[in-house]
Amino acid sequence: MPSALRDLQGMMNADFCPWANKYVYWLKKPIGWVFCALLASVLLGIYVSTQAFLVSAAISAIGIIGILWPWIAMQGVRGTLSWSRGRCEEGEPIDTTLTLINRWPWPAFGLFIEADHAIASQTSAPDEPICLSSVPALAESQFEWECTPGNRGLYPKRKVRLATAFPFGVWTCYRELAVDSPLMVWPKTAKLKDVPDVTGSPSAGIGSPSDQIGDEGDWMGVRPYRPGDSLRQVHWAQTARRDSLVVFERQTRARPELLLWFDSESCEGCSDEEVNELLRLLATLSIHFVSHSWITRVALNNTIRVLLPGSSTKQRWMDELASWMPDQIKNQSVVPPKTTGLALGVTTDLRLATLSQANHYAQIHWFAYPSLNESAPTPDNSNCTVLRGEGSALERLERVWPHYCQHTSSVSLALPGIRR
Q: By C-alpha distance, which of 168, 157, 72, 74 is closest to 115?
């Protein structure tokens, strides 16, 4: 675009009198122009010809009907918004249901939904809001569509309202919709295909046997039955001899451990999309190791939480990531605890130089999201992987992950009998 045309466009869109906005913004609504037309027709009737009062009467009728009819229509309509399930990931389609009850003996026309774009648009037409042609009289109606929330969070993020401006569109009346239960949208995750190589016996990947009591290792003895024990563990010979249930006592397995450090300070000055990309990386790494039965310790907000294998742990953790905001960052700094297991971190390339100078971060291998505003030099060490390249951060992580798993240095895990 030529500079002269760009300057002209900027001048035409400039707000030269922001102080006057509160006095003239009402003209943005159709009712404002109806009022101006009414005022002009009245002045013409007074100073030019009395026939102009007929126009004033017609304009008044349009204004009165255009205001009263939407208001009356909204008094008899109630609605509820719900989803097919309570949780989904970013970019995952989910069925949305709107239930409307019309108590008036005439249909309601021209209804539309005013809500977050993520839930008030259809997957097949993401730029089009949900509009309803009509709601039958004295009936309960259901409308269903498929929406795709693009960003994490708790939806709806603002009030969901049903609106109508029928018949003339000069005034819009609203009715707030009830929401059965909010929709929790988790950060998007990628499926990584491997875990880092570890030294030791072949059982290191799932944990080696220990002498603690559990349900996974070899038999260690017998004990009386306790409520909740599986019937597969019953020692039937001893049960028949003692005339009471006796079960096998088995070993447990010591699981490999991971310390996953999220550099919260890297979110300062980042855009919302950059923060979302960082949380997607954190969610992907944590869920990947939890699904492989690793004991995962995650540092978020300078607080270390332990994630154990299990669906309930994943749900609580992903709910926390979905609602986490950068303004929750705590000021006090916590030094990462020393670990004999694997240590990974998520940060941005702008923070790598600072983190590489701190000795207490030396054990962590960083996966860095490249800044969109400026390019930062990569420190000259093998303790970081900058996710540069085409595609999203998750796609870049998927590409570099197999190489990292194959070429990572031997990791000493906190397992009995395993040495570096």
A: 157
CB 301 within 8 A of CB 325: no
- The helix or strand, by DSSP H or E, that contains position 252, with its residue range, turns out to be strand 246-254
* 321 φ, ψ (degrees, to nearest 5): -65, -35
Domain boundaries, given as residue ranges, for the chain: 77-186, 209-254, 257-407
Give the DSSP H/E element, type plus range, for residue 80.
strand 77-83
Give 10-residue mean pLDDT values along the chain (420 residues). Answer: 72 75 69 86 90 91 92 93 93 92 93 86 76 90 90 90 89 91 93 69 45 56 77 85 84 74 86 91 93 87 82 86 79 67 88 80 88 56 81 91 74 36
Strands (E), 103-165: 108-114, 131-135, 139-147, 153-155, 161-164
CA angle 122, 127, 132 (to 5 degrees): 55
Topology given in CATH for the domain delimited by 257-407: Rossmann fold (3.40.50)
How far apart CA 361 and CA 358 sit, in angstroms, is 6
Fold adopted by 77-186? Immunoglobulin-like (2.60.40)
